[in-house]
Specification:
With 481 residues, this protein is α+β, with helices and mostly antiparallel strands. The protein has 18 helices and 23 strands.
């Protein structure tokens, strides 16, 4: 009986569905509206190419866009017969002029937001008369979010210290080599306040080796290994330096060339007595004012300490190094996409010897991408007295006052707090940006000073803010009873 009832029910449903023959079909779910678009991206060429002919052309596509961008771009190009066989993958924008000039690609994908950046990066990238063949807007349906492994990393959320060194030869990461450090900068990065503190040491700074207990120059202590340099500097400044980033002359030149150089406000007319390799037969001339310096010139400026007019030899050189650091920070802050354009996420192992893990490096790249204009930099320099050892070797003996100010600045950068009764209170709270052209006078760099209270939100107590009456307990606490 149950089987018969089920059969009747199915028959009724079937007949009802067929009655009239025009039963309306269920409406399809409407396509969701995108929240926004990435791009636009343009398919460009220096030729006139009809879209229907794209299937027979080679197209350059930069890896930096990421798979989610490239997948959609390929989907759009696929409507014109383009397949993966048509694609020439490029690791960075640096390759675009080469594939065009060598006829290995007929067109390329361009993001107009970065057009000027690319021009700064590589002036031959912009090809006169290139055509925009197709506009592609990549939709997104959810608000873009950073991966949790980045947003939860301490480097993304908390200040950290890294020792930046420049050595006079390539270093083998697996061995300790007899290298010397021409550049010694302790850098504190605060990703929350977009603030950077640099503390620069002359290379001949005399300090105690944490590993062996004797005193030596910084550029000699590093020959004991980077661990000794980090520990020795950390002990001198009362801080723990966990990370390092080390470059050689060669890797520095590669990096500077890849980012398209940096605009440096050179403080004086510079006639260096040597090139970046100290070849006295090929000196560099750099005029006073803002100059675009590529790898070799930038290295020569950072390295030379004997050209005409420099202030105090190595003490002037560390200021030139700070000028370049500030210029690089400014370039990234103004054009954060430059990190992706030059492919630093894959290039860095070739130019930087560091103990940041690959995962941490990706976090650092994201921190740099978010270092927008409005950031602050504080350049501090350890001043020293000229001295010599018992054997007659030159040393730079650090002045205690400058070491103590550096300690206070580092503590402020790490904690965001300062004791109102701290020694050198005002000096610690005075930020300084190294001076360029127009600020160099009588053998000294006169840069821009600013108040760090604004950076750290420090408010000074005034008489108006002080309670008119204090309880005996409060008075007792203040008097130390």
């Amino acid at each position: 009986m149950k089987k018969l009832s089920m059969l009747v029910l199915l028959l009724m449903l079937f007949l009802g569905g067929c009655a009239g023959g025009n039963n309306p079909e269920p409406e399809a779910e409407p396509e969701p509206e995108p929240l926004g678009y990435f791009g636009p991206f343009y398919l460009c060429s220096d030729e006139e190419i009809a879209l229907e002919d794209l299937k027979d052309k080679k197209i350059g596509l930069q890896e930096y866009y990421g798979s989610e961008y490239n997948d959609y771009i390929m989907e759009v190009l696929g409507e014109y017969g383009v397949t993966e066989d048509n694609i020439v993958m490029l690791d960075s924008y640096k390759a675009v002029p080469d594939v065009i000039n060598n006829n290995t690609a007929d067109a390329w994908i361009m993001d107009p937001e970065v057009e000027q950046i690319v021009h700064d990066f590589r002036t031959d990238y912009i090809i006169d008369g290139y055509n925009k063949l197709l506009e592609i807007n990549v939709p997104y349906f959810e608000e873009p979010e950073l991966p949790k492994e980045i947003t939860s990393d301490p480097l993304y959320n908390e200040p950290f210290i890294v020792m930046c060194t420049g050595i006079d030869e390539n270093v083998d990461p697996d061995t300790t080599r007899g290298v010397r450090t021409d550049v010694n900068i302790v850098m504190v990065v605060d990703p929350n306040r977009n603030h950077i503190l640099t503390v620069s040491f002359p290379r001949d700074t005399y300090m105690k080796s944490a590993k062996h207990g004797y005193y030596d120059k910084m550029n000699a202590i590093v020959q004991n290994g980077l661990d000794d340099l980090l520990a020795s500097v950390g002990k001198t400044l009362d801080c723990d330096i966990e990370y390092y980033a080390q470059e050689s002359f060669k890797s520095f030149i590669i990096m500077m060339d890849y980012i398209g150089g940096a605009w440096v406000d050179v403080p004086m007319n510079v006639h260096m007595d040597q090139d970046h390799t100290r070849n006295v037969k090929m000196p560099y001339d750099v005029p006073k004012g803002t100059n675009l310096l590529y790898g070799e010139q930038a290295l020569a400026l950072c390295r030379n300490r004997k050209y005409n007019g420099i202030a105090g030899g190595d003490f002037g050189r560390i200021r030139n190094q700070a000028l370049l650091v500030d210029s690089l920070v400014a370039k990234v802050a103004k054009n954060p996409k430059i990190i992706d354009l030059v492919g630093f996420d894959w290039l860095y192992p070739y130019i930087i010897h560091t103990n940041f893990t690959p995962e941490q490096m990706q976090v650092l790249f994201q921190v740099a991408r978010e270092f927008h204009e409005g950031y602050t930099v504080d350049n501090f320099f350890i001043e020293c007295l000229d001295d010599s050892t018992s054997s007659g070797a030159y040393i730079a003996r650090p002045i205690t006052r400058y070491i103590n100010i550096a300690k206070g600045k580092i503590d402020l950068a790490l904690t965001g707090k300062i004791d109102p009764d701290a020694d050198y209170y005002e000096s610690i709270l005075t930020g300084y940006i190294t001076g360029g052209a127009g600020t160099y006078k009588d053998g000294g760099y006169i840069g821009e000073e600013y108040d760090l209270r604004e950076v750290y939100g420090i408010k000074e107590e005034t008489e108006e803010e002080t309670p008119a009456e204090e309880t005996p307990a409060e008075e007792g606490e203040k008097s130390g009873d």
